[in-house]
Amino acid sequence: MLTLCNKDFRSTDAMTTYYRGAGVDTYWHSRDARASGFSAQMPGAAGGRQTIINHINNQLTSTSPYISMTRSYEVAEHYARYFGRDHPSPARPAFVYEVEFDPVPAGLQLLDPIIEIAKTLNSPLAPPPFYQHNGAPDVLLAVVRESVLPNILRTPVRNPGVPAGNLPHISDNLRALVRALRDAEVLAYVAIPQNCVRQRYAIE
What would you measure as the largest C-alpha separation in the chain, in angstroms? Predict the structure, then answer.
């Protein structure tokens, strides 16, 4: 059983704050996590590296035991504003939840996806497939903003003596690592207690 956060304990050193966006008409927009806490869509699903990658890359949250949070209020606001089923307005605002661990409740598992994915990466001497890309330096910019810079990932890479080769190699591991860094993402496993959900900000 999870031990709920202690609202009376306000040590700045122990306190850790995260954010979670809820776009208009999404699940946590119509349900107030301040009253219920957050729960994963599939709490009984198997976790692990591939589940984390699918959660991050393909938004497969319906089969995931994880709950995404971010260190960055701006990232959460971006998701709340642009990833709902409608645009927020004064009449129907989106929300950003503030989640505070003060300290982390006993039994609650927080995972850094960068660390979890990196644990499984091959040695630099391992044969292909490798997780690194083989393109130009701006390839990572395209992975960060794929919808804005799609042409970079459609440009064949150059190799010695070859004017143009295949498209850049972007592994699922690399895509998940870059996106997790982009979103300052941390995953909670299965549930976040109600007492840890401190505030909800309206995004109009």
Answer: 67
Tell me, what's the pLDDT at 14?
56
CB of 55 within 8 A of CB of 188? Answer: no
Whether residue 85 sits in one domain with residue 50: yes
- Contact between residue 3 and residue 56 where contact means Cβ atoms under 8 Å apart: no
Please tell me the distance from the alpha carbon of residue 196 to that of residue 102, in angstroms, as a whole number: 8
What is the mean pLDDT of the segment spanning 119-146? Answer: 92
Residue 67's nearest CA partner among 187, 200, 204 is: 187
The CATH code of the domain that includes 71 is 3.20.170.30
Other CB atoms closer than 10 Å to residue 158's CB: what's the count? 13
pLDDT tens readout for residues 32-61: 999 999 999 999 999 999 999 999 999 888
Tell me the mean pLDDT in the region 96-103.
Answer: 94
Is 39 domain-assigned? yes
Helix (H) or strand (E) holding 164: none
Rounded to the nearest 10 degrees, the angle between the axes of helix 49-57 and helix 172-182 is: 60
